[in-house]
Amino acid sequence: MTRIIGVTGGIGSGKSTLTQQFERHGFLTVDADAISRTALTPDAACFKDAIALFGPDALNEDGTANRRYIASRVFKDETLREALNAIIHPYVICEMIRITEESEKPLAVWDVPLLFETGMDAFCACTVAVLCSTELRVKRVIVRDDSDEAAVRERIAAQMSDETRAALATYTIRNEDTPEAFAAQADELIEHIRKELL
Ligand code: ADP
To answer: Is the shortest distance between the CB of 89 and ligand 1 below 6 Å?
Structure first.
């Protein structure tokens, strides 16, 4: 059975960068964000249940989801947002398990921003929290997404703190130096994890 390593961290901490490094070391990688973006496509197992929460206005004439309408409804209504998440999260977990089980690889990395919040760490043999100061994360996300500073700060403030993530994770790795320094530190951690899990 494939053993799973959960990678998490706040926005802009370097989760994707670390996950790519695992991939270079031959690990299967599965991206929770990418899967959750497929949840509102007609082929997704949770599509009908998700649409049913909102009624017929949530469908475009061609049968696809009216994402703008759904976004505007959940923006105004926290209970509705939680209900949608309660449909999407199990779908994401099932998909991640399916992809992992289909793979022949012995080790898989799950890149999950809400690893601890969703309880997905329960599927993991070990977890890694990528830590980075708010100031550096803000700078990096503004460059990466061409986004507005206030919006990035708001997102960071709404997320779990690095202290909590560090307390919950098996391993922590800091990403406040150069990309080269991070890659070197990541190589060491990845080889350590490989020895521990195989
Ligand atoms: P996350 O997946 O956690 O949101 P990313 O891995 O996408 O974070 O990293 C955020 C941005 O910062 C990306 O554009 C990435 O290339 C850049 N980045 C990551 N690590 C460093 C680093 N050590 N120095 C400078 N830029 C970095």
So the answer is: no
Q: Which two tokens stand for residue 79?
A: 């209970």
Ligand 1 pocket test, candidate residues 18, 140, 146, most atoms within 8 A of CB: 140
Percent of the chain, pLDDT > 70?
100
DSSP 8-state assignment for residue 180: H
Say what the pLDDT of residue 58 is.
96
* Interval between CA 47 and ligand 1 midpoint (Å): 32
Strands 171-174 and 126-131: parallel
pTM, to two decimals = 0.94
Cα–Cα distances (Å) from 146 to 96, 108, 138, 158, in that order, read 29, 31, 11, 20
Q: Where are the beta strands (DSSP E) in the chain?
A: 3-9, 28-31, 107-111, 126-131, 171-174
